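Continuing the series of single-chain predictions for the mutant panel. This is the parent chain; the variants come on the following pages.
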Amino acid sequence: MNGQDPAASGIDEKWLPYRHPQPRESPPELVIPNAIPNDERIWVPVEENVWFRPLLMAASRGYWMNLLKVRKSGVLSRHRHPQPVHAFVLKGEWRYLEHDWVAREGSYAYEAPGETHTLVVDPHVEEMITLFQVNGAMIYVDPDGRTVGYDDVFTRIDKCRAHYSKNGLGADYIDQFIR
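Parent structure:
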């Protein structure tokens, strides 16, 4: 504006963009226009009729965001979280055997660190899609709490690389989601 006062020129300053450079160390933004993709190859299989779709793999912070899609009923996993988890149900519903609430379409759920629960999708649900932010790890356990496996951002990235290398998207397809 060549040193002009925006108010004097009739321009509302709140509509002016930030004038300075962003921090050099800040990673690039990530915008995914089709978070629920049309290309089924983007969904990474977990088991039969269960997939996840990576949105953000925050390797530098130890968390990941993904969509979980389920097209079957039954128990998906029993797991513990050492860090909080956030969930927002986009379609369908699910619940935990250890609680009396049901996370239905439009529901938000906060899962406290240290909790162990068993995720279930009931038979009347044709498809469930939920946005999850998982901080730290998912530690899979038996009914007595003994560890039987785990997932963290790094195992999830590895699963994506393996899946995308097999289906034609290429192992580096996951790189766009890593920050």
